[in-house]
Design a protein that fits this description.
The protein has about 130 residues and is mainly alpha-helical. Helix content is about 80%, strand content about 0%.
């Protein structure tokens, strides 16, 4: 079942998520829309990173979603709009949030947690820029 999940469901989920983020509406998004969008992008990036590193897809999604929420919060706190974002900062915020989320969920692999969070932060920056 796990192989079926990794070979069939995860690539489909990733493709659907990436297609959905490229078809975002042209109107300006509200703060709630941005938060939900970034949580979704982060979760998808977490699942993809988890599949690459052979980790749990659920924990990867949780880790990525936490990174997405943290990146949104950091950008809101700094008053940044999507046109003035910084890739290294978003990746660093995602890495920090991923490390914390991994510790909370019992996934005590700090490097993998940081990589998952950084990938989520970078994906958010690249897809919403």
């Amino acid at each position: 079942m796990n192989r079926t999940l990794n070979r069939v469901l995860l690539p489909s989920l990733l493709a659907t998520t990436l297609a959905g983020t490229t078809l975002l509406p042209a109107k300006p998004a509200s703060a709630d829309d941005q938060l939900l969008r970034n949580i979704g992008i982060g979760a998808a990036a977490g699942v993809a990173t988890g599949a690459i590193t052979h980790r749990s897809a659920v924990r990867g999604a949780i880790n990525g979603a936490a990174a997405g929420a943290a990146v949104t919060g950091a950008n809101s706190a700094l008053g940044r709009h999507s046109g003035h974002r910084d890739l290294p900062r978003d990746a660093a915020v995602g890495a920090a949030a991923g490390t914390v989320a991994g510790t909370v969920t019992g996934r005590h692999h700090a490097i993998n947690n940081a990589l998952t969070g950084a990938a989520a932060g970078a994906a958010i920056n690249l897809l919403t820029h």
